[in-house]
Amino acid sequence: MNDLQDLFNPKSVAVIGASNKAGKIGYSIMENIRQSGYSGSVYPVNPREKEILGYRSFQAMPDISKPIDVAVVSVPAQLTIEVARQCGQAGVKYLVVVSSGFKEIGNTGLKREKELLAVCKEFKMRMVGPNVVGIMDTHSPLNASFAPGFPLQGEIAFISQSGAMLLAIFDWSRSVGLGFSRFISMGNKADLNETDFIWTAAQDPKTRVILCYIEDVVDGQRFLKVITEASRRKPVIILKSGASSAGARAASSHTGALAGSDLAYDTAFRQCGVIRAENMSDLFDLAVAFVNQPIPAGRNVAIVTNSGGPGIIATDSVEKYNLKMARFGKDTIEKMRVALPDEANLYNPVDVIGDARTDRYVAALDAVLDDENTDSALVLLSPAAVTEPEETAKAIVAIQQKHRQKPVFSAYMGGEGLAEGTRILTKGGIPCFTFPEPALKAISGMVNYSALHKQLSDKQNFAERTKVDQKSVKAVLYDALKDRRLVLLGNEATQVAQAYEIPAAPVHLASDAKEAEILAESLGYPVVLKIASPKIIHKSDVGGVKIGLENGRQVAKAFDSIMESVRHFMPATPIYGIEVQKMMPKGHELIIGMSRDVQFGPLLAFGLGGIYVNLLQDVSFRLAEGLTTSQIEEMITETKANTLIRGYRGSEPADIGTLVSTIAQVARLSLDFPEITELDLNPVVAYPDGAVALDVKITVSYGDNQEECLP
Amino acid sequence: MNDLQDLFNPKSVAVIGASNKAGKIGYSIMENIRQSGYSGSVYPVNPREKEILGYRSFQAMPDISKPIDVAVVSVPAQLTIEVARQCGQAGVKYLVVVSSGFKEIGNTGLKREKELLAVCKEFKMRMVGPNVVGIMDTHSPLNASFAPGFPLQGEIAFISQSGAMLLAIFDWSRSVGLGFSRFISMGNKADLNETDFIWTAAQDPKTRVILCYIEDVVDGQRFLKVITEASRRKPVIILKSGASSAGARAASSHTGALAGSDLAYDTAFRQCGVIRAENMSDLFDLAVAFVNQPIPAGRNVAIVTNSGGPGIIATDSVEKYNLKMARFGKDTIEKMRVALPDEANLYNPVDVIGDARTDRYVAALDAVLDDENTDSALVLLSPAAVTEPEETAKAIVAIQQKHRQKPVFSAYMGGEGLAEGTRILTKGGIPCFTFPEPALKAISGMVNYSALHKQLSDKQNFAERTKVDQKSVKAVLYDALKDRRLVLLGNEATQVAQAYEIPAAPVHLASDAKEAEILAESLGYPVVLKIASPKIIHKSDVGGVKIGLENGRQVAKAFDSIMESVRHFMPATPIYGIEVQKMMPKGHELIIGMSRDVQFGPLLAFGLGGIYVNLLQDVSFRLAEGLTTSQIEEMITETKANTLIRGYRGSEPADIGTLVSTIAQVARLSLDFPEITELDLNPVVAYPDGAVALDVKITVSYGDNQEECLP
Predict the structure, then answer these.
(1) Domains in chain A: how many in total?
(2) In A115, B472, B676, B706, which residue has its Cα 20 to 30 A from A165's Cα atom?
(3) Same domain membership, residue B22 and residue B161
(4) Helix A656-672 and helix A470-483: axis angle, to 10°?
(5) Could B385 and A23 be called an inter-chain contact, meaning their C-beta atoms sit closer than 8 Å?
(6) Candidate from A245, A318, A435 with C-beta closest to B279
(7) CB contact (8 A) between residue B413 and residue A168
């Protein structure tokens, strides 16, 4: 994939719609390019001007007749197609289309956007936008945007789908003194999108942390592959909004109903190593942490404070954010005992007491950072009579230099009196907050990244080790397609499962009571009878299931009773017959399922099953794409069901290996057959040796006329 | 209860340990009293001075010979007892003991603190502290503290257990311009504590919001009664730390194990209407909201923004904080359609588009606030070329004046360019944030307070309507006490339950297989056999339960099998015999339990029961003290079990009335018998008509030698 090197560090930039009139966007862009210190060639294009801001202006693109890497387009929307064509003919590599009037204004704009994209594709140009603020690279340097100024130089790349958000952050960042490597406005993402920009930032040596604000992901499958690789290189932190607007997805399976609209994003981000920020503050707190501090080796935090209350509050946050209070070794305690007064608390949180000057902070912080049990440190300071906020700040910065591999954070709790100390800390790279909580949230984010990062190095994909019989699946799907059925019959679904070595109890379809009796005799008692109808999803709810049938008489009676009950509840429903299944011994009831996400493909579920699955909602999720065996194992561990199957209160542990391979095979089946939209194995009964799905439900789609056939 | 009027607005103040030396605490206190503009009499006491800061200084207390309301004590700890005695003899009403060297330094200090308290009690003096910064009242005005200055005047009372926290907030509040009515440092809380100070602030006409930082509550039962009343008058917001340090409580019951160390506080706060702040930022965000804005009538929020991204982010937060997006009426939409450009989004979030000046904000905000479906509004502003942050700020303030009953919040997203606008908003009482999320969190906190407040008006206590037979309970407890048993036998526990009309299935104790058979015959089959031993809590885990026994032979066999299994697992355990119980029909398995909290008394639990109770952890909690019927109903509604018992997937609804009365009776039993420390009804099987506890476990304590007898 392209590293977009010529986009961010072009040899030449044309500005189409450049202007000499202050206040015009075409003027701001020119002014920004000039003021940013851009050293390449600049070609303003404006038929009515001879010169713009000291640059020779051209009538039109063909007049330039020099190689052009980037063309920034700021002309009325209806002119952009023709401009793009001229750019293509002139050999332009990248278009940055600032103009608005595209997808965001509705159908007319969408049509225009498609035409514009077609021209770009025709000439193999790549496009940023349309409808963007522009792009900035503080190291090239290049400011090809209409933002009011240039960001401070730094190592954070900020990529935003919202131009307003970009401008707001731009304004805010300058007032708090935060530096950036790149600001990228993605606009409508007609061509280049988050995946491209994150990837190119991952390759940019001047970028150490990648921040991203998005409202959606354009190509989920590509995102998963590429961003996994990007996250291996540097932290990718994303604020994804729109969780509330997506609404619940239509779903006819348990798994589908459990997988909320935002869940696939959550799962995708975690699976490819992305840290998901909860809000704007967290996004930047994390960025500041990653840019300035090393990643902690573990969860153990040491706290040094000059007062008890804030120490307790910080300790609470340590627990809240899944960190641990470091337990110091004897040496550390002894070192502090010598240096600190008797009343000091030498255990974590270390309290150097209200009358502490800088020397006590130095002794304590140095000692705890020396301790191998400390992975990170947080220094708290409250103003008291003898407190030395500035001297202490300088000392903290110096001590951290001595312990470069361990991150140090601070909370200076107070106002004006501590402002200079805060400034010294911030300048020295020690993130400083007013209250302790956000510091610990940031440390926790770093530790979580570290855990995700380790996971990414485990590349062992489950799929290599399994057997599949695609032919049998196709045969079943062919029958269903012929009838245009969207829900497979029980015996069909079971065949599909078995073709992928997914253990499923065989079912046989009986069309009358006599046939059911004969099937039961051949299977052996006890048996279960279940209604077979493409429209009935919750079979128990309509009296469609009878269990524990011990003989032919009971089977015949159950057959009639089910028919009567189902006819009563759902008189107009088509019924294919009644399925006869051998009754399996009792065991832990689990669910394994799949629901296909529009963006990210098959989303797998595992958890407590049975009829209470929706009530208990004890389910964990993973995307099938790129899934590894250890991720499947982790997926199982996250559930309460895990406690049960590991041997709960005297019961024998279940066969975890079979569960792992079953999940892996469901993943493989889902990846191999995109036409399978939903799959529920519920319950899967887990035994000490093996597991078996008692009910397999598979929903398919043929990509046309689905509405007519949907159950 | 005392309103402490003479403490916060005294006619005279003595300062014992007053000093003329700058830097001394006794000097700071004198300086603060003088500079605060205190208008009463001031009597410095210092044997070596004639005059201090212009006030005549006294050799000792007896020399003053005038009535003294408050004596501030700042002398070495060892002298405080004698000083207190002199104060008592001089008729001082309140001591404010600034001196440290008490409980906080260990046993010597604790002894001293007790002596000091005894002297106060002897003379009927009330004490603040010891180990405090002091107290401040900006309206009296009086600054009887050693804080570096006086807070800005306002309507927030801040009560802090930590002096350092108080000083930190003091410093911070001055730099952000936040005003206070009172600052109270509680120190060691030997006498006056949070309950007293919250109550007096609730009565103070100059205080509108009460903020409190505490690490513990001194007297839980009194806190519950008094703070419930305080919350009825004004918002009480508490940050309680120390959740992590308390550790898990020792517990031998399911309920005890489920009730975490911090849970009783959470429950207590909610039950008496207190808003619990998650952290320092929330504490003050809420305070600012309550002081400046009216309480919203409901959850419907209107959002007005000049850019899409922030609007989406705010919409996400609306959902996250359990608020709702207001749905505007046709009139509102029409009003906005006339005033706003075509591209504007007229539905919530209202987007007035990036080129909006003040007029569009005015039109939109006025329209949405006029709408009866809007309960509160949030205005978002991102900087763009034509944005008018200051003009818009003024307009927002003016519009809110027009709609005084609806709160308005703002988020000005940016930096320096928006600082003046932010200042105008803050000054005008419109809380202004950098990002939208904390604004919505504050609105949510206000709405939650409103809901809690409504609940407090429902005073109907369950206890009036129920019958109890205390004699039978005492008879059972007497037998247990004689044997010094801490866990009642099954049949004893059942008798206790039945005495309080708690429905429990009768159990009978059999000492051999023959007796079990005879009991089973008399009860009727099928029956259940359960091991009876004071040491066995999880009976199933050791093979101590056999169910569904259909005849005498099965009973005899089960008896022997249980004995063998229990002897195998727990060879040294005392066994009282085996309990025989009639087997009850199947139904929803629930748990109702009680675990006695050290601070707040009986803590009741309700949820999904059976053997998976600890695994599923679907349990809600309430304190028995002051519990109302509607709180019990709410308690049931909070659980997943609620879905089940209301009739889940075709099953008949359970008898909720019986569950409510059973919980009420458990509450009553627990309040009547403090010696009952834990109680588990698990499972309680709920039927469409009635419910029955199959297993009743009651643990008692006799207040002495408990360790020896504990199971």
Answers:
(1) 4
(2) A115
(3) yes
(4) 60
(5) yes
(6) A435
(7) yes
